[in-house]
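Title: Comparing notes on inverse folding

I've been comparing how different people in this forum approach sequence design from structure. To keep things fair, I'm posting one structure and asking everyone to reply with a full sequence. Here's the target:
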């Protein structure tokens, strides 16, 4: 206990120096908040708070700031809220107001966003707060629907939060809630932590021992409940359709609410629920490609469907994206099965270069009815290797180094046009980087390079004057040092769309806050002038394809780089990850946000990013992408 108190004292010093830097009286704020809620101490749950009472209105008049339309971005975003906050906009002030129920509904989401922004974007995934509010931190985040942030903090700030984690795991995650001084039991588990596959918690109640344990993946959970003989407990399951829940004897359905069903569970022998989670609209299936792995970081995935219907996916894994131990891994989802096979390392040191070079941006692709091709790059001179398989990826040739200057596909799969294979890639030149299209007509024995004829002048977003997205876009070159300007727009990783009239359109990732675009009028034999579009881009990878019905699909981060923001900061906002559809490749309509959580890794830009999509034989989209750099996620989408 002495160690914990000492640690709390250290936190208090940090919090005081940060939160009270403008002489904000946190003690008075806490007392005023407790009085407004009608409770005597933090952690005491108030009865229903009357937001129209004089005490609450006086508190909000004094401490609540409301400045709408002040976000740095032009659309709602977890990490860039409006200036709607309490007190000094510290984690302490916003957290306490949320916990005590003092926040009006029309302000609640933005106050929560400011709390999340403080934790994720400002403090790099850590909590800096008055130690008096730490006991309410995890349950409040979970109550507000951000158990993912609570889980992050339990790993990042485990020492500071150690006294409170067991209760949070037991009552919130396992869902064991003793009510009425222990004379009643309510079971309400939280399955929302995607990478938490197993939970097992128990406690001794006045009625006897209670246990809740479950195992789950992204689509299904098996939940087991043990209760004392002779009693009943109320179980609340976060699924609104009772037909998606199967159960053992001794369980009875009693009703439903908004997004949940309610059940009565008898004590005695262990009871079992088999739960199929409800999927968002358009989502048919979602899985992680793996659960257990030895590498702490993974990224840059690619997927293809083979001629036998199997899905083959590759990605890189290692200490970090640029580490020398980063290698390409492959996994397979056989046609008709619902699981991915164990990972196979494709690029050990004997296959693709010495250990001192990292491996990155693999691309997997099957030529129509022919070989399966695996392209990947190593960090030395961005050299590109090619491996071939004649048996649908079960065995592979020795890697062959492509000719000097031929970089192969960088992110998007090759495009077959007649007898030509066009590989969209990059061309590194002094002071600039441009898209390039590497073409072969003889199965990779010889290559030619095509590139845009010209490109408009551009200045990277991080070199612009600070401001909101969409502002300060055109800045004279004299406003920045010459060595920091791009005379020609910098763009990489093109994806080719094929229009019904035969025109080819390549979209590109840029550092200018918008996607780039360049057209070919002769089937990809030459390319015209590259320009910026109106579509936002956060200098992160995207994936765009032509659908069988002639429309176009794109998955990307729906976020525009902030003018003047440091490069790594605006890249960190790799969320949300969204699906768009277009009829003409110019105007895009958002279909769904596939991910919109606020989590990112502060050391490397993370979030939910680097998607790769294909359209399968089942007319569904098959998508893989980086999930917080901890996993690679697969999603099947029906339009």
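Reply #1:
Here's my take.
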């Amino acid at each position: 206990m002495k160690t914990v108190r000492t640690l709390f004292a250290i936190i208090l010093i940090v919090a005081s120096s940060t939160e009270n830097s403008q002489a904000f009286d946190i003690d008075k704020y806490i007392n005023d908040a407790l009085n407004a809620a009608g409770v005597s101490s933090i952690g005491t749950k108030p009865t229903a708070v009357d937001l129209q009472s004089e005490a609450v209105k006086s508190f909000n008049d004094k401490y609540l700031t409301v400045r709408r339309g002040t976000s740095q971005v032009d659309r709602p975003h977890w990490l860039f809220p409006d200036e709607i906050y309490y007190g000094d906009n510290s984690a302490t002030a916003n957290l306490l107001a949320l916990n005590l129920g003092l926040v009006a509904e029309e302000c609640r989401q933005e106050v929560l966003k400011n709390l999340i922004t403080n934790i994720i974007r400002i403090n790099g995934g850590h909590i800096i707060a008055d130690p008096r509010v730490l006991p309410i931190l995890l349950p409040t985040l979970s109550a507000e629907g951000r158990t993912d942030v609570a889980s992050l903090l339990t790993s990042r700030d485990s020492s500071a939060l150690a006294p409170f984690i067991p209760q949070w795991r037991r009552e919130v995650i396992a869902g064991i809630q003793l009510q009425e001084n222990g004379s009643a039991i309510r079971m309400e588990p939280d399955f929302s932590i995607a990478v938490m596959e197993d939970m097992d918690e128990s406690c001794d109640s006045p009625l006897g021992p209670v246990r809740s344990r479950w195992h789950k993946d992204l689509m299904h959970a098996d939940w087991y409940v043990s209760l004392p003989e002779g009693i009943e407990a109320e179980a609340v399951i976060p699924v609104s359709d009772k037909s998606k829940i199967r159960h053992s004897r001794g369980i009875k359905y009693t009703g439903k609410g908004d997004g949940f069903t309610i059940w009565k569970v008898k004590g005695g022998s262990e009871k079992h629920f088999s739960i199929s989670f409800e999927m968002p609209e358009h989502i048919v299936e979602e899985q992680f490609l793996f659960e257990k792995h030895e590498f702490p970081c993974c990224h840059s995935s690619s997927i293809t469907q083979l001629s036998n219907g199997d899905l083959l996916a590759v990605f890189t894994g290692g200490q970090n994206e640029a580490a020398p131990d980063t290698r390409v891994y492959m996994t397979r989802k056989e046609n008709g099965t619902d699981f991915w096979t164990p990972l196979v390392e494709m690029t050990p040191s004997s296959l693709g270069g010495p250990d001192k070079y990292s491996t990155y941006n693999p691309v997997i692709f099957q030529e129509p009815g022919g070989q399966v091709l695996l392209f990947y790059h190593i960090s030395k001179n961005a050299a590109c290797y090619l491996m071939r398989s004649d048996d649908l990826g079960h065995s592979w040739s020795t890697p062959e180094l492509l000719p000097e200057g031929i970089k192969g596909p960088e992110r998007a799969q090759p495009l077959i046009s007649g007898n030509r294979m066009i590989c969209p890639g990059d061309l590194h030149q002094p002071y600039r980087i441009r898209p390039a299209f590497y073409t072969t007509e003889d199965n990779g024995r010889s290559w030619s390079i095509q590139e845009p004829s010209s490109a408009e002048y551009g200045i990277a977003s991080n070199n612009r004057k600070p401001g909101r997205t969409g502002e300060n876009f055109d800045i004279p070159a004299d406003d920045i040092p010459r060595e920091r300007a791009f005379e020609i727009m910098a763009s990489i990783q093109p994806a080719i769309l094929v229009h019904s009239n035969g025109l080819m359109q390549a979209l590109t990732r840029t550092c200018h806050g918008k996607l780039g675009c360049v057209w070919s009028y002769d089937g990809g034999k030459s390319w015209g002038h590259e320009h910026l579009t109106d579509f936002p881009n956060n200098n992160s990878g995207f994936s765009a394809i032509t659908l069988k019905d002639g429309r176009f699909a794109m998955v990307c981060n729906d976020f525009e780089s902030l003018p003047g923001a440091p490069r790594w900061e605006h890249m960190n906002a790799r969320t949300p990850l969204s699906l768009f559809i277009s009829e003409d490749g110019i105007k895009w309509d958002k279909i769904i946000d596939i991910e919109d959580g606020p989590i990112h890794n502060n050391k490397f830009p993370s979030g939910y990013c680097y998607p790769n999509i294909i359209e399968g034989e089942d007319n569904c989209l098959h998508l893989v992408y980086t999930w917080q750099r901890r996993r690679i996620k697969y999603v099947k989408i029906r339009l």
